[in-house]
Design goal:
Oligomer: single chain
Shape: globular
Helix content: 40-55%
Radius of gyration: 18 Å
Structural class: alpha/beta
Low-confidence stretches: none
CATH class of the largest domain: Alpha Beta
Strand content: 5-15%
Strand order of the largest sheet: 1-2-10-7-8-9
CATH topology of the largest domain: Rossmann fold
Number of domains: 2
CATH architecture of the largest domain: 3-Layer(aba) Sandwich
Largest sheet: 6 strands, mixed
Length: 317
């Protein structure tokens, strides 16, 4: 089981390589006591670097020599590529599905990762990626499934939040595979068990919501068209096992409201946040009473927004 001590150990290993990201007061909701944790300003513009470094710093010299690979919709792949540079790992392969935004593929390549496009969806890419890993004898760097070091690395965000705002009541986290919310929740509740952890998912892929409702592990999940490419596919095994201990509530965000939320985050908050990180704006707007008179933190998990989306927002489209 992931513990607060695991997360503290991970933080000691990676803190010299990451940024302690800012916690800023929300401009979009001035009447709420809401703060934003800006992981969009983390190195590689995403929280994913924390988990990647936590895991990759444990590799043996032989494993580093043989190389690493992962399957990613973008942010995790960029993080693995960047971490490999830091650790001197020369063979780095990132497998992405055909539906991936070109901007995220370019971001992976910027940090030196070799990109292979396999499969129509993230779940397809994951299956094909496992066969590729076995054939090439590479170490797989898990994005969210069950690796304790990955979860512990993501949990270092929770340590920072509790240090920056020790009396926080609610932490709001976007949920894809579940590694982020599991890590943050473990850290926060380990320090203060009364902190409430609320997860957000798009209605296009409510995998964790349905897993909780059905008490069933969905390692794959059908996805409707969505702008939230970082929140697609199934959930992690470890996240499923931890859900009842960590997640106090899940909110499903209407896919049709996400672009307006992203626009508000970019133009009013002044934060370059990808749609997957902007769900909080729509969720709070639709559920204001849940957050009134509470000290809240929303995690802005990534800022690698598609260039076309950002251009449309800036041009008022």
């Amino acid at each position: 089981m992931l513990t607060l001590e695991n997360i503290k150990n991970a933080h000691r290993k990676i803190e010299s390589h990451i940024r302690k990201t800012e916690l800023v007061k929300s401009k979009l909701f001035p009447d709420l006591d809401l703060y934003l944790k800006l992981e969009c300003s983390q190195l590689t513009n995403s929280f994913k670097l924390r988990g990647a470094l936590s895991k990759m710093s444990t590799l043996t010299e032989e494993e580093k020599q043989l190389g690493v690979m992962t399957v990613s919709s973008g942010n995790h792949g960029a993080a693995v590529s960047y971490a490999a540079q830091l650790l001197g790992i020369k063979v780095v392969t990132i497998i992405v599905p055909k539906c991936n935004p070109q901007s995220k593929i370019n971001n992976i390549k910027k940090y030196g990762g070799q990109v292979l496009i396999l499969g129509e969806t993230y779940d397809d890419a994951h299956i094909l990626g496992e066969a590729y890993r076995e054939k090439n004898n590479l170490t797989y760097i898990d994005a969210y499934y069950e690796d304790e070091f990955i979860y512990a690395g993501q949990g270092t965000i929770g340590l920072e939040i509790m240090e920056q705002l020790s009396d926080v009541d609610i932490i709001i986290v976007p949920v894809g595979g579940g590694g982020l919310i599991s890590g943050i929740g473990t850290a926060a509740k380990g320090i203060n068990p009364d902190v409430k952890i609320i997860g957000l998912q798009t209605s296009a892929c409510p995998a964790m919501i349905k897993a909780i409702e059905d008490n069933k592990f969905y390692d794959e999940y059908p996805t409707l068209p969505t702008v939230c490419d970082a929140l697609v596919g199934g959930i992690g095994k470890r996240a499923f096992e931890m859900k009842d201990l960590i997640i106090d509530e899940m909110i499903e965000v209407d896919e049709n409201s996400i672009m307006e939320a992203t626009k508000n985050v970019v133009l009013i908050e002044g934060i370059t946040a990808e749609p997957s990180s902007s769900l909080f704006a729509a969720a709070i707007m639709a559920n204001l009473d849940k957050f009134k008179n509470k000290k809240c933190v929303a995690v802005i998990s990534g800022g690698n927004i598609d260039n076309n989306i950002l251009k449309d927002i800036q041009e008022g489209n």
